[in-house]
Amino acid sequence: MTKPLDIVFLGLSLSSSWGNGHATTFRGLLRALNELGHRV
């Protein structure tokens, strides 16, 4: 098994997609990485 990664995400707020069209995509990506066992 691969060692989990420690991932830090820097960017616009992920809690609101107002003015940030990428927020929903980033939330999905971070959720998937977390489900794979990585620390986000």
Question: Mind explaining what this structure looks like?
Answer:
It is a single chain. This protein has 40 residues and is mainly alpha-helical. It has one domain. Helix content is 32%, strand content 0%. The chain has one helix at residues 23-35. The longest helix has 13 residues, at 23-35. The radius of gyration is 11 Å and the shape is elongated. 0% of the residues are buried. The mean pLDDT is 88.
Draw up the topology in text.
Blueprint (H helix, E strand, L loop, with lengths): L22 H13 L5
In brief, what are we looking at here?
The chain has 40 residues and is mainly α. 32% of the residues lie in helices and 0% in strands.
Contiguous runs where pLDDT drops below 50 for at least 5 residues: none
Bin the helical content: 25-40%
* Mean pLDDT score: 88
Number of strands: 0
Please supply descriptive tags for the structure shown above.
single chain, 40 residues, mainly alpha, 1 helix
